[in-house]
Amino acid sequence: MIYFDNAATTFPKPRAVINAVTDAMKVCGNSGRSGHKYALCAAETVYNCRKKLAELFNTRPECVILTNSATTALNMAIKGTNCINGVTVVSSIEHNSVMRPLNSLRKNGDTVLKQFLADMGDDDITCENFSAVSRSATNIVVNHASNVCGRILPIKMLKKLSPGDAVFIADCSQTAGHIPIDIVELGVDIICIPGHKGLLGPMGVGALIINPFSDLVIDPILEGGTGTDSKMLEMPEYYPERLEAGTANIGGIAGLSAALELVEFSSKESELYEYLVNQMKNIVDITIYGLPEKSALSSYVPVLLFNKNGYDCEAVAATLSERGIAVRAGFHCAPNAHRTLGTYEIGGVRVSLSKFNTRREIDRFIDALNTV
């Protein structure tokens, strides 16, 4: 099977990741709950992962909150900051992990929701659209890159244009592991990441990462045992314990820690993506969305949305699957992105690459697509 669904999760997982997960199941107890060797092994495993993430994203280890997914991290960031009783600004290409919690707050009268149009071809226009709605913002939640078409938004520019007291949250689900991310350089308060996509780790682990220079206080939306301050009926005031209630996914954390050793930012993915786009442009009955065939490809992570003219997207994906090629069709949990791209009524077929893919696989995909 040729696997082109890496925006959902990378596959296959590196052998070192698989081994780390299974090894943790043999030697780790419950982190922070006891002083015996198995609990200490778990605590060391958690801290090593936390430290590696802090180094990768340029923060302090205590500013790395380990979660079970980017979705959980985003809910914690959105509901635990000053979205409530404020004005929240989002882009027009957000994932449902942002839009659904915000919509719940909006329906309950807890936030006013404003949206700006993300332009697929011009960052300056995107910034102008953002400025028009962001003056009263108390919270800003923006996708670093679209999970539907791969377009990278100018987060650093948007942050500079935002009100100084607004909390800025970046959903880095599609950029973490694909491009370097320095939270201090970006200037945002929080980034939320999954461990299982570009970072190559297992499913079931993610992180909320706080800018080390932010004085942000995040209220917990999940409360329970932390292994510390057990006599208190409130969650601790300090990070990461303040936001890490309950038993950690030690196996997943061990796997992510091993995966972080493999992170490298080479030109391979961008070269493969450029090759894919160029090959797709040569197919006359294909429509590509999001302008990667016209814009600078450095503004994209390796995600491409297309349709074969006259064919249902689900039928195209099913035919490709029968021919040994895994892609994803439909609406990709991001209806607003499809509205922006003009595919809200029809959906699209998404191809998403990783460093494990090859030009030969792309050639086989193009051959199969030509015969659909």
Please supply descriptive tags for the structure shown above.
single chain, 372 residues, alpha/beta, seven-stranded mixed beta sheet, four-stranded antiparallel beta sheet, 13 strands, 16% strand
| Mean of residue pLDDT values | 95
Global Rg: 21 Å
For the sheet with most strands, the description reads: 7 strands, mixed
Distance between the termini: 17 Å
Helix run count: 12
- Indicate the low-confidence ranges by residue numbers: none
Specify the overall morphology.
globular
Strand-helix topology:
Blueprint: E1 2-3, H1 15-27, H2 37-57, E2 64-67, H3 70-80, E3 86-91, H4 96-107, E4 111-116, H5 123-133, E5 139-143, H6 155-161, E6 167-171, H7 183-186, E7 190-194, E8 206-210, H8 250-260, H9 268-281, E9 286-289, E10 303-308, H10 313-322, E11 325-326, E12 328-330, H11 335-341, E13 348-352, H12 359-370
Parallel strand pairs: 1-11, 3-4, 3-5, 5-6, 6-7
Antiparallel strand pairs: 2-8, 7-8, 9-10, 10-13, 12-13
Structure description:
The chain is α/β, with parallel strands linked by helices and 372 residues long. The protein is built from twelve helices and 13 strands. The strands form three sheets. A seven-stranded mixed β-sheet has the order 2-8-7-6-5-3-4, with helices on both faces. It has a four-stranded antiparallel β-sheet with strand order 9-10-13-12, covered by helices on one side. The chain is globular and about 70 Å long. The two termini are 17 Å apart. The mean pLDDT is 95.
